[in-house]
Q: What sequence folds into this?
């Protein structure tokens, strides 16, 4: 076990504070590699982890939204939509200056994120929507995290809201996204807006990536029913015995490419084969090790081959981990791989404003020193 995970107080002191915060979405034509999973602990707890990929800097901040903070959605023609006051305090990450969560966790242990869902997301027609129930696609997660304690409560409340088709100003188009939510009991759901209707799936595997639809991803798992942490036995053909080349043959065939279906299978393989650890730093570190397998360096994924068609490179801007039992939220960035923690229950959840801290590289890479023989 490495050094003790830092609490948010030290991180907060090293970051600039602001009275107003913002959060973005895991979506854009250049962000198709977000991966998320739920890791269950040996004592009945749960840890949620995800990566955020984007092709250009989104300048995320860590933010805390207090209880009773007034929030509202966006309705047709940019007019006010659904209005509500935060029932629960929540922590998460932001971008672009929007007053909504792209990823986060609340004080009851409900956590989740927004991931890109290109080619499949379809929202309700704003002209036919009730403005008093309207939310923009990037506002749904904020409503869920500040309003509910469990995934069952979210499911029960879905008929009371409508996600409408609105362009996001930073992207210039409606962001095609879907949502994953987990609670402290280990329950998990996926919510996908398709054809103007919210489709809700129970998520027993706790994994979500991007397109295609969640039910397709589950069906695709039938191609990988032999996933096992145990090595495959030697194959015997008459008098011949064919042994595996080495360790890990039980996972032979798990796809290693960064496409969404392959990442879905690979994330499931890691989560289901990892030895469960107790709630606490050990499980957080285990989740971090799993997340490391989905870290995308700049240049690994890009579109266009010529200089005239090449677009910005998609890369993992940050990875987050939420301990749903201890209500601690962690983040590390592309520039600073030190995992930094926010203890939500030590924050002032009755504050009058949203608190924010910039995610800035803090620790330089130490120089190597060699002694002369």
A:
């Amino acid at each position: 076990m490495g050094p003790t995970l830092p609490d948010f107080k030290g991180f907060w002191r090293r970051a600039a504070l602001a009275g107003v915060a913002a959060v973005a979405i895991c979506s854009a034509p250049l962000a198709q590699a977000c991966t998320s999973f739920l890791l269950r602990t040996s004592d009945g707890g749960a840890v949620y982890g995800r990566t955020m990929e984007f092709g250009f800097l989104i300048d995320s901040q860590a933010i805390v939204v207090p209880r009773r903070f007034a929030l509202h959605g966006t309705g047709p023609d940019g007019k006010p939509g659904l209005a509500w006051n935060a029932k629960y305090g929540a922590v998460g990450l932001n971008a672009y200056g929007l007053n909504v969560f792209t990823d986060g966790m609340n004080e009851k242990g409900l956590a989740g994120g927004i991931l890109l869902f290109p080619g499949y997301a379809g929202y309700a027609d704003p002209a036919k929507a009730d403005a008093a129930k309207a939310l923009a696609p990037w506002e749904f997660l904020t409503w869920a995290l500040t309003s509910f304690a469990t995934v069952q409560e979210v499911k029960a409340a879905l008929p009371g809201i409508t996600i409408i088709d609105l362009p996001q100003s930073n992207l210039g188009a409606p962001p095609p996204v879907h949502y994953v939510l987990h609670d402290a009991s280990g329950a998990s759901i996926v919510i996908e807006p398709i054809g103007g209707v919210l489709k809700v799936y129970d998520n027993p595997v706790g994994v979500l990536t991007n397109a295609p639809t969640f039910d397709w991803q589950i069906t695709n798992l039938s191609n990988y029913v032999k996933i096992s942490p145990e090595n495959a036995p030697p194959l015997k053909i008459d008098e011949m015995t064919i042994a595996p080349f080495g360790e890990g043959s039980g996972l032979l065939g798990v796809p290693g490419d960064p496409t969404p279906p392959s990442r879905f299978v690979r994330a499931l393989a890691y989560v289901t084969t990892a030895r469960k650890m107790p709630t606490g730093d050990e499980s957080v570190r285990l989740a971090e090790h799993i997340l490391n397998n989905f870290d995308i360096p700049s240049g690994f994924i890009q579109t266009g081959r010529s200089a005239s068609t090449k677009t910005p490179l998609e890369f993992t801007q940050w990875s987050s981990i939420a301990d749903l039992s201890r209500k601690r939220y962690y983040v590390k960035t592309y520039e600073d791989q030190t995992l930094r923690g926010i203890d939500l229950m030590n924050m002032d959840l009755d504050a009058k404003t949203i608190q924010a801290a910039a995610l800035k590289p803090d620790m330089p890479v130490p120089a190597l020193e060699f002694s002369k023989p």
Q: What stands out?
A: Residues 8-352 form a domain with the Penicillin V Acylase; Chain A fold (CATH 3.60.60.10). The CA atoms of residues 96 and 286 lie 31 Å apart. The longest strand covers residues 46-54.
